[in-house]
Amino acid sequence: MRVELIWEANELVSAVVLSSILASLITTLADLNDRLLLGINGLAGRSWLFDSTVAFFRDNDLAKAGVIGCCFLAAWYGGKTTNGTTTRRKILIVGLIAAVCVIATTKVLSHTIFLPRPEIQSRKIYRLEGDQLVEMKRMPVRVPLDETSQKEYRALVNGDVETNDLGSFPSDHAGFFIAISLGIWLASRRLGLIALGWTILVILMGKMIGAQHTPLDIAAGAGVAIAEVTIIQYALRKRFSSWLDKLAGLTLSYSALSSALVFAVAFEVSSTMIHVRAFLGLLAAMRRHVLLGMS
Amino acid sequence: MKRSTSMRLISTWIIACALVFLTSCKVQKEGLVVMTDESYKAVLFANNNKIKFGSPDGIVWHKGKLYFADEGGVALESWTKQDGLKTLIDSRFGTESPEDLVIDSQDNIFFTDDDAGGLWEFTANGTPRLVAGKDKGLISTEGIALAPDGSLLVGDGEQHEVFRVTRDGQVSEFLGKEYGITKPESMVFDDRGNLYIADNEDDVLYLLDGEKKLHRLVDRKDSFSPETIFYAKGSLYITDSHNNKLYVYTPNEELKTIAAFGGQLKNVQGVTLDDQGNIYLSIQTDLKRKVGAIIEISKENSEIAKK
To answer: Which pLDDT score, from 0 to 100, does residue B4 have?
Structure first.
């Protein structure tokens, strides 16, 4: 009995010590995060050509995500044997399911945790802390010289703040593209490395150079992606292996139809599912309109 | 033995993570105010810890007192620093959801109620009364404005009309359905006798001129939805609960954003100004749980602003 009590007391003390260590670690990480962001963002605002190139790969869906879509298609069709193709397709199907879960998680988190984009943090912001509003430390980020960034900055100065810009943690771009790229990597190492490399060096680096996300946002998005891809790959392949076998088999039996569907999927991946989201928005509006009778 | 040690190690980690999660819950309850006009500063004037209100909607400063149409608390209340919060009318009198209020120069308070309907009054001598109820056609009352002739204009969100109500409770149509105003959520007269009307269903700010001609002043459905409007010193202050913003509109000038709100503070509702020109906003954080706040937005000290 006494030994048990001592154990419990020890556990509690260790937990408190650990949590305080973790808390100080968080402060150090936050500091490192700011420095890293300012270092990376320091590349912006110096050359119009450089900034425009970065903005092109950041904003253009084909340039941004087309490569990932191509890698996905190449992995889908790239098996050397029927068994190899089936295995790849099973992994890719699970990867897509995981990516949808990841984007749902990052969206929920970003609506719960309010960390504005670094470009917004360059403005005067007050944060609610207990019973008072406390002015936040300003982030002296550089504004890229490309046309879109300049236009957005002018809009920000004029008070045009998008609600989406107030919750940038974690990065849903990081979560979604890393989840897809990890799925491709599990199916084909070479194609996966290309997809992961493109995601990190082009898509996510562009987000940090443009001060749209901090390294912490990106790391958190990537963390969510890695965790969910691992869990979902393990769980689905363990529990629903026979279903996946059937589904992968069907993609071979009905190759024309499955090719059409995979094209649609790759297209949506390349456009960060913007059309699917618009379709879901339409369904929600129809539900409100038809079922609830709202105009 | 080895197994139990590892189990204890795991449980220690779980407790540590839970503690970190609990401390990070502070982050989840955050609220943000982004000052897009940097000449202003923001202060949390009141929340449920400081003043025991519910969740106010309409607010008005009048002769050094702050009055609340407390939708969450189902009451009409007044507050001063000396006397604290006083309930003037509560649900026992029949109100259900006090919405917006105006006070005349004799200190009579009039307010609307979008659930109970009707126009309600708390007279200067402290008597509550229903001026005109649902039986007179005021079904879901929203915006309210004190007309120069002493009558009251009341907007009805269900009938899509604006009614004129005299002090003795006679109701007549002021703006019929043909004007096309869907939900007259808030109304206010300027110093020239023009009536501003905020329609937060069609997301339009209207101006009704002296000749009763209706003009669409601001109509940007994708980015603007006026909730409450308040006219002071030549400018119209507008809250937007859909886009979570506070604007100022000055005739012949562009609509200007003063602040944007996020998190717990995003649902901006009422707006009023005190005699010094400080802006007060009511925030309905959680209407069902009666959680609300009042934010004061005032000009920075001019020297600091220059810096």
So the answer is: 59
Bond before A170 cis per omega within 30 degrees: yes
Interchain contact A283–B (C-beta under 8 A)? no
What is the average pLDDT score of chain A? 87
Cβ separation A128–B295 shorter than 8 A = no
Check whether domain B3-306 has CATH 2.120.10.30, yes or no:
yes
Token couple for B95? 């109100």
In the chain, the amino acid numbered A90 is K
Measure the N-to-C terminal CA separation of chain B; round to a whole number of Å: 67
Q: Judge whether A128 and A34 are in contact, CB under 8 Å.
A: no
Q: What is the DSSP letter of B93?
A: G
Q: What is the CA radius of gyration of chain A?
A: 23
Q: Six-digit token pair at B181?
A: 């105003």
* Residue A88 CA: distances (Å) to CA of A180, A192, A197, A243: 13, 12, 20, 15
The answer to whether the pTM exceeds 0.80 is no
- What gap in Å lies between CA A93 and CA A99, rounded to an integer? 10
∠ CA A129-A131-A135, rounded to 5° = 45
pLDDT recorded at residue B7: 56
Residue A35 contacts B, CB cutoff 8 Å = no
- How far is Cα A254 from Cα A251, in angstroms, rounded to an integer? 5
What per-residue confidence (pLDDT) applies to A112? 79
> Which positions 95-114 of B are in contact with A (Cβ < 8 Å)?
none
B 150-179: CB under 8 A from A: none
Model confidence band, residue B21 (pLDDT cutoffs 50, 70, 90): very low
Contact B256, B38 (CB under 8 A): no
Is residue A276 scored above 50 in pLDDT?
A: yes
Q: Which of A22, A25, A121, A124 to mutate to test the interface with B (most CBs of B within 10 A)?
A: A124
End-to-end CA distance of chain A: 67
Residue B217 is encoded by which pair of tokens?
């002043």
Distance (Å, whole) CA A267 – CA A276: 11
pLDDT at B123 over 60: yes
Residue listed under structure tokens 């708390």? B122
CA dist A147 and A49 (Å) reads 11
Contact between A163 and A120 (Cβ < 8 Å): no
Per-residue pLDDT of B256-286, as tens digits, reads 999 999 888 989 999 999 999 999 999 999 9
- Give the tens place of pLDDT for each residue, A24-35: 888 888 889 999
Chain A nearest-CA distance from B254, in A, is 10
Compare CB distances from A15 to B16, B201, B264 and report the shortest one's residue: B16
Determine, for residues A126 and B264 on separate chains, whether the beta-carbon distance falls below 8 Å. no
Q: Is the CB of B245 inside 8 Å of chain A's CB atoms?
A: yes
- Distances B167 to B30, B110, B121, B138, B146 between C-alpha atoms, Å: 45, 10, 10, 15, 11
Domain ranges in chain B are: 3-306
Q: What is the pLDDT of residue A9?
A: 77
